[in-house]
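Risk register update: the risk of archive-format incompatibility is retired. Evidence:
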Amino acid sequence: MSTVHCNTVQTSSGGPVALTKQEAAKCLSRFNAGTNAVIGSFNQSSRTDDGTGLSTTSFTNNMADANYFANTHCSVTAAPTTGHGAFCDSAYSETTSSVGLAYGYSGSSSGTAWAFHDFDNIKFLLHGDLA
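Archived output:
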């Protein structure tokens, strides 16, 4: 077995190596929206609470453009009492440096079409090209 040790990888002309055909996540975050606590993150410089069911995630390294793919998953540690059908939407404010997240319930038992809610376990994942 061989071991390679190096400090810098460059092209034959001395420039940076372009990593192509990679689809690795460019930003991830897991947080509790109720307490505003970040449980874990990658390429997230900050997270702001913009009100019940709303937050903004700012990136440490900006994206090349705002045409990235963002996916959010909401879950709770206890059975919901205000409705059912958790929804998450990560497309209400996409820029190269941040993304707005919205989350709540749809189809509540009280007849409300939807309601914002701060879930205690939100997972966010973003794919795209870094600047």
